[in-house]
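Explain this record to help learners:
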Amino acid sequence: MIEIGKIHKLQLIKKTEMGAYLNYKNAEDRDDILLPKNEVPQGFEIGDEIEVFVYKDFEDKTIASVGKPKLTIGELGFLRVVGTTNFGAFLDWGLRKDLLLPLREQVGKVSKGDLCLVGLYINDNNKICATMYIYNLLSSDSPYKQNDRVCGTVYSINREIGIFVAVDNKYHGLIHNNELYGNYTVGDYIELRVKRVRDDGKLELSMRKEAYNEIEGDAQKIMAQLKSNGGILPINDNSSPEDIKAEFNISKRAFKRAIGRLLKEGAIKITEEGIELMWQ
C-alpha cells in the first residue's frame, strides 16, 4: 500500500491524458497513483522509476508530486504561517496546496508570518495536517552525554514542571523549574547544557554552566552590581531566594557559592545590611 505523507520510489505503469499512473514495481494491488500531466518529466516511459511525494490534492484525491515538501511524516521542522482562519492556520510546506495546522493543534497564538515548529500526522479523513504538539514525535535516542552543550526550541511550557525543549528539533529535553532563569515563550531557540541523560534517554537540561565554571561568572556579576551601586548592596546570604534572583538572576545556592569565593579573595565583606566591596 502506498502511504500518503511519504516519499516513494514508484514505477510508471501507464500514461493517460491526465498524466502518469504510478505504483510499486511488481505491485500486486492495482491502486495506482496519478502523477499529474504537468509534473511528468520529459522522456518518462513505461517501466521507468521516479521518486515522488504522495498526498491529497484540493479535490481530496490521492496524487503524486515530483515536488518535495519541506517535511514528511516522521520529520519535525519550522514552517511559516501564510494565513489564518477560524479553524486553523495554513503553512507553506513547499507544495502548491498549503498545509493545515488545525486550531486544536496550535500552542499559543499563531499569526501570519510566524515560524512554527511542527510535525505531521494523518487525520481521521486521511489528510496530512500539522501539529505543534510534538512530544510523541520526539526521539529519546540522542548522541549527547552529561555536560554537552546543545541547542533546541521551546515547544511547551508547564508552570509546575518547567520548559519542554526539542533538542536539535528532534530529541526530548526538559528544563526543570529549578534550572530555569529568565522568561521564555514557545518558539524560543536557546543554548543549554545537558545536566543528565535519564535511563529512558530523555535529556534533563540546565541553563547554567558546570558549577566549577559558574563561580567565576556569578562572582563577576556580583562585583559588577556592587561597582554600579557605589560598592554596597542590601543583599546577603540571609536574603530570600526571590530577592537574590531579582537582583542577580541566579539561585540562592549559586549566590552563596559566589560570595564565598569573593570573601576568600578578600573582595567583599558581609554586613548586617548586605555586602560591601572591599576594593575597586
Q: What stands out?
A: The longest strand covers residues 7-16. Residues 138-206 form a domain with the OB fold (Dihydrolipoamide Acetyltransferase, E2P) fold (CATH 2.40.50.140). The CA atoms of residues 61 and 209 lie 53 Å apart.
